[in-house]
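Hi V.,

You were right to ask for the full record rather than a summary. Here it is.
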Amino acid sequence: MSGATPSAKNHAGLPPLASRFVDVAGLPWESTRFPGVLQKTLLVDRDSGVVTALMKFAPGAKLPDHEHVLIEQTYVLEGSLVCGEGECKAGE
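Predicted structure:
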């Protein structure tokens, strides 16, 4: 796997397996195609499809039903996330 943080300029030229220290606060929130949903992309590996991103949902924002080819991990800081498999609350 050779991942990169697209908006992290200090990652250019790092070897594929080098540690990448991400200034998360310095990364911009990016619009998505879904109203009320923003993201900060922390890692993208185009070969494997692995993506690590922070997501910010406005109250009531929704994503359409979808599937993930690989694992999806969720940790909720505030509010809750409800999907077909249940509810993930703040701190979970």
